[in-house]
Design a protein that fits this description.
By secondary structure, the chain is of the alpha/beta class. The chain has helices at about 15-30, 45-55, 65-90, 100-110, 115-125, 140-150, 165-180, 195-210; strands spanning about 5-10, 35-40, 90-95, 130-135, 185-190. It has one domain (about 5-210): P-loop containing nucleotide triphosphate hydrolases (Rossmann fold, 3-Layer(aba) Sandwich), CATH 3.40.50. It has a five-stranded parallel β-sheet, with helices on both faces. The structure holds adenosine-5'-diphosphate (ADP) and magnesium ion.
């Protein structure tokens, strides 16, 4: 596959969705290839339905391994339907969350352990790894503060109701992944202004994939 697969990762409220939209808009202005933005979990009708089951606030009794399997199932469907076709025709996919989220949330924060998470996700993705991951780093308190400050404009899903300690573990999980994959994952300080975060993301992407995005 000739395309470029870039994922955005980070704790809730880090600014992934905000940055991704603007980065996509700016890249599209100079790209010589198709740019597609999408999100995890979801991004295709079947995958979105699985996402709704995962995030339904009524599903308080959901088993943690069921949750991990549903994320992997949603990821698989989304990958096949939406990501791979774009990569196959040489385009660029900017994806809001991917396997790293499952490792940080289910593996570390829920405490299932990373081995099982890698196992079910390896089955789901069949070797389709991101070429670059932009990890938007934010202290858990600040991420939660941003979500609270954004009021009703953002969906209040089941995960947002978890304790601060959970979100701190999520961040620890991400920082662990950064150490393990320094070549793939680039850390972006998300406590900067929105503009600064976008500029930094663009600089990394343009440097890595100069042929596709002229500055
Ligand atoms: N760099 C930033 N500085 C201040 N606020 C931000 C920044 N990036 C995003 N926000 C705000 O924080 C909230 C959460 O951002 P969002 O993009 O939804 O985060 P995520 O997708 O990572 O959960 C939104 O209200 C957004 O406007
Ligand atoms: Mg988001």
């Amino acid at each position: 596959m000739d395309g470029i697969f870039i994922t955005f990762e980070g704790p809730d409220g880090a600014g992934k969705t905000t940055a991704l939209q603007e980065v996509s808009r700016r890249l599209a202005a100079t790209a010589n290839k198709k740019i597609v933005t999408t999100r995890e979990p979801g991004g295709s009708p079947i995958a979105e339905k699985i996402r709704d089951i995962i995030l339904d606030t009524a599903h308080t009794e959901m088993d943690e391994r069921t949750e991990a399997l549903l994320y992997a199932a949603s990821r698989r469907q989304h990958l096949v339907e939406k990501v791979i076709p774009v990569l196959a025709e040489g385009g660029c996919v900017l994806c809001d969350r991917f396997v790293d989220s499952s490792v940080a949330y289910q593996g570390f924060a829920r405490g299932i352990g990373t081995a099982g998470i890698f196992q079910i996700n390896d089955f789901a993705i069949e070797g389709v790894q991101p070429h670059l991951t932009l990890y938007l780093d934010i202290p858990a308190e600040e991420g939660l503060r941003r979500i609270a400050a954004s009021g009703g404009s953002r969906e209040n899903n089941r995960l947002d109701q978890e304790a601060l300690a959970f979100h701190q573990k999520v961040r620890e999980g991400y920082l662990h992944l950064v150490e393990e994959h320094p070549e793939r994952i680039v850390v972006i300080d998300s406590q900067q202004s929105k503009e600064a975060v976008v500029e930094q993301c663009l600089a990394v992407i343009r440097e890595r994939f100069a042929a596709m995005f002229e500055a």
